[in-house]
Amino acid sequence: MMTPVLTTLGFVLHPDRERVLMVHRIARSDDDQLGKYNGLGGKVEPGEDAAAGMRRELREEAAIEVDAMRLRGTVSWPGFGRHGEDHFGLVFVIDSWHGEIPESNEEGPLSWRRIDELDQLPMWEGDRYFLPLVFDPAVGQFHGCIPYHNGLPTGWSYSIL
Hints:
The chain has 161 residues and is mainly β. Helix content is 13%, strand content 42%. It has a 6-stranded mixed β-sheet, with helices on both faces.
């Protein structure tokens, strides 16, 4: 039986709709994601729904309040955790927000990155599989699975609704 860690991952769109807010995880030497770029998000807390968790994470990590967001899909990451734990993530695009984004957070610098150049950034290998689906307007929702073994993806399967 799978008992995954429930997470959120959000991609905050710039008003120009061509860039997205990314964090460069370089602030903590003990970070499992050290050196990688990622969207914002984290674990859903007990008693919290996924959308509320996404809103809280964006408040904590980027000092913004969400005005509008969409669930783009889900990703199951069996074996992804530091000790082989399974993770399950809900992936959101944040279409509208307000607030003053700081230059960095406790994980590293925050910066606007072109969506069409995200594949050139250092990131989790598995993220390269689903990121194109996140920003593809022809995709309603995607639901994928990326098994991990020893920190590397071993496959990719998905369905589009």
